[in-house]
Amino acid sequence: MGIGVSIFFLTIGAILKFAIEPDVLGDSVHIDVIGIIFMVAGVVGIAISVFLTSRRGVIVDPEVHHRENPPPV
């Protein structure tokens, strides 16, 4: 799940939690709880995306690295 999808889930969750009346679908469906679940999924998705993006390092070509930093003699 990318950052864009995570922000989408966070936004939909906030709309379900704060902008819609909790009893709009009746007593059996708690739309505010569904909104909280979407918001948690969005926050977790953002955290995972940021973590995985920060772990991506620069891939070093061994040939270029060897030419720029010759081994000690």
Alpha-beta classification: mainly alpha
Mean pLDDT: 82
Radius of gyration, in angstroms, nearest whole number:
22 Å
Give helix and strand order, one letter per element, not per position: HHH
For the largest beta-sheet, the strand count, sense and barrel status come to: none
* C-alpha termini separation: 48 Å
Number of helices: 3
By oligomeric state, this entry counts as single chain
What is the beta-strand fraction? Answer: under 5%
Number of strands: 0
What characteristic shape results from the CA principal axes?
A: rod-shaped
Amount of helix = 55-70%
Q: How many domains would you count in the coordinates?
A: 1
* Unreliable residue stretches: none
